[in-house]
Specification:
With 625 residues, this protein is an alpha+beta fold. The protein is built from 22 helices and 22 strands. 48% of the residues lie in helices and 15% in strands. The two termini are 45 Å apart.
Length: 625
């Protein structure tokens, strides 16, 4: 067992030098120090030697940083795929085993053992506090601390390894029975996502700049139109110290000042609706802390509210468009992680993915969050998705999982209905079946209903689907469960697994346990009873897709294709992935093997419902989803 850490002069994109490395060999308690570029090179070769002899190397975030950096700086250092199973990343382990760490941290914060700003953090620094072994503050105390090597840096480097070793041993000691398949799955997913981040997603900068100009023009025109029809809004109250006949001021008499309406101000929009127009939406879901929420949901409600005047409904439409245009500009050009700001010199956006970012095992995205790129069918969704494409001469393949959420529901209902719901999902018309079961008047309401139901929506929210209230929602849910007994039985089984005792008024007085088991055996922390089913379903979908993309890459490599030269994963967003392919033929292979990989996932997880994919080939994300 070898624990290691490196210190460099930058992140992967900009790094040009590794200053030092420390390796702690468990056998014999040997600590090895390597200084400067040549020394670190020798340290990298030492890690390879450990792997070649069947040993394990351990570090924190080494799959996404340390190992790729060493491979970038030293061409003769590369961790072959067959050795990856001997690499243990404590960051991957922490995210998997302690996805709910933010909730656990409250006690440490109260007792002063963890700074509040580190709540929920999975960094080595945060874990050092939790374990009582601090990692040091070298980089925080010295300006340009990472520009050149120093002995102080080496001491800091060694302390990182001390904390890493303690963390790894603590994780393994406190999780002796943790399912090995979960650890294997998450490590494989991290390797793939680290490669995807380095691959990047080619971005059409010229088209993006043209779209930016178009949006700014529309915002300017809409801004001018709004300022013409909206009166000035109240500003500060001014109390003059002396009389001013020309301005009409009287000393000591307050004067209300006014200013031009700012359509970017949510406070002013609320004043416009409530005070100027005298309109207050009668829907408690549109309020937060007694203030009206200013968003597209509120504007959609106003536009369809019979109690709103024509003038108010028209104004809601204008404001909704204005906020939408500014939101698109924020994503495209103005926001901190706007796409145009995140393009590297290679013409690509290198967004990061945490494969285990949520307690359910679902991935999260950042820098930028490509999962938030507007979908086709929403305003400017087509234009936005068209910006994300493949390198010139390459072909894009996009593959989606088919109807995954309801197939997951059918899997868990299977023991109670012997596959009846699964058959309807795969071979029938499940939304019509749900419509009939719930007694909904229209089929398109069934899809909204079932997903709201599965996400734990309350009676009032369900009732609004049919334009009713909480009583209507309660009636719909009751009828649906009566007509779908397998789902009622599943919900009862989940509650019986989690709850030991309820009080007179139905409140939980004693939990039997606070977790469910995922498809790979991992414990899934449950925050509340009403979210338990959704936790189970979201986790199932996340783990299926995680195994799916892993198997897809493994299948492609087994066919002799190279990840990098022949195909490149560019994005994985929940139930889809986008892949750049060197040729049309390779794109067709990717689509085919993605379907085979999904069936692999079905078999490996002993999933009771048939799993399928749909693939599209084109030149950009818009074409392929």
């Amino acid at each position: 067992m070898a624990y290691f850490d490196i210190e460099t002069n930058g992140l992967y994109r900009d790094v040009t030098a590794a200053h030092c490395m420390v390796i702690k060999i468990d056998d014999g308690n040997v600590i090895l120090h390597y200084r400067h570029a040549d020394g670190v090179h020798q340290g990298a070769l030492k890690l390879l030697d450990v792997l070649q002899k069947g040993g394990t190397i351990v570090g924190h975030n080494i799959i996404n940083y340390d190992i790729p950096v060493l491979e970038k700086l030293y061409p003769d250092f590369k961790v072959p795929r067959e050795y990856r199973k001997q690499v243990m990343d404590t960051l991957v382990m922490c995210r998997l085993m302690y996805g709910d760490i933010g909730e656990r941290d409250f006690g440490l914060i109260r007792t002063g053992r963890l700074p509040a700003k580190l709540r929920g953090s999975q960094t080595l620094k945060a874990w050092g506090y939790r374990l009582g072994t601090l990692k040091g503050t070298y980089g925080e105390e010295t300006e340009n601390a990472w520009a050149e090597f120093s002995e102080e840096m080496l001491k800091y480097n060694e302390q990182d390894v001390v904390v890493t070793e303690k963390l790894y041993k603590w994780l393994t000691e406190h999780n002796k029975s943790y399912p090995v398949p979960s650890l294997v799955l998450e490590h494989k997913a991290q390797w793939l996502m680290a490669q995807q981040e380095r691959n990047g997603f080619t971005f059409d900068v010229l088209a993006a700049q043209q779209l930016e100009a178009e949006l700014r023009g529309k915002v300017a025109n809409l801004d001018a139109a709004l300022r013409k029809v909206v009166p000035q809004v109240p500003d500060k109250i001014f109390v003059p110290k002396r009389d001013n006949k020309r301005l009409g001021y009287v000393a000591g008499v307050p004067v209300q000042k006014y200013k031009d309406f700012n359509p970017n101000s949510r406070q002013q929009i609320e004043w416009l609706l409530k005070v100027h127009y005298g309109y207050t939406p009668d829907n408690e879901e549109l309020y937060e802390d007694e203030r009206l929420k200013i968003d597209d949901i509120t504007f959609r409600f106003i536009k369809s509210d019979p109690a709103a005047s024509d003038e108010v409904r028209s104004m809601a439409g204008l404001l909704e468009e204005y906020l939408m245009l500014n939101k698109r500009l924020g994503q495209l050009a103005d926001g901190r992680y706007a796409w145009l700001k995140m393009v590297w010199p290679d013409g690509k956006i290198h967004g990061s993915v945490n494969p285990c970012g949520a307690v359910t095992g679902r991935a999260t995205h950042a820098n930028p969050n490509v999962a938030q790129v507007p979908r086709v069918g929403t305003p400017y969704g087509k234009e936005c998705r068209s910006l994300f494409k493949v390198p010139d001469g390459w072909v894009q393949a996009g593959i989606d999982a088919c109807g995954l959420e309801l197939r997951c529901l059918a899997h868990f209902m299977y023991p109670y209905d012997h596959g009846a719901y699964a058959h309807e999902v795969v071979h029938g018309d499940i939304h019509t079946a749900n419509q009939i079961a719930a007694g909904l008047p229209e089929r398109n309401q069934a899809k909204t209903f079932i997903y709201a139901f599965l996400y734990g929506a309350g009676d009032e929210k369900i009732g609004k689907i049919v334009g009713g209230d909480a009583a209507d929602g309660k009636r719909l849910k009751k009828k649906f469960l009566a007509q779908t007994p397998a789902l009622a039985q599943l919900r009862a089984a989940i509650e019986n697994t989690l709850v030991e005792k309820r009080g007179l008024h139905g409140q939980i007085t004693k939990w039997r346990r606070r977790y469910l088991k995922g498809l790979d055996g991992r414990p899934l922390h449950v925050r509340s009873i009403h979210s338990a089913l959704n936790t189970l379903l979201q986790s199932a979908g996340a783990l299926i897709c995680k195994l799916w993309i892993i198997r897809a890459e493994e299948r492609l490599i087994a066919l002799g294709l190279d990840h990098g030269k022949d195909f490149q994963f560019m994005a994985w967003i929940h139930d889809e992935f986008q892949c750049a392919c060197r040729t049309q033929e390779i794109a067709e292979i990717v689509v085919r093997e993605a379907q085979n990989a999904m069936r692999d996932a079905q078999e490996i997880f002993h999933f009771r419902v048939q799993l399928d994919t749909e693939g599209k080939i084109g030149g950009n994300w818009c074409d392929c989803h």
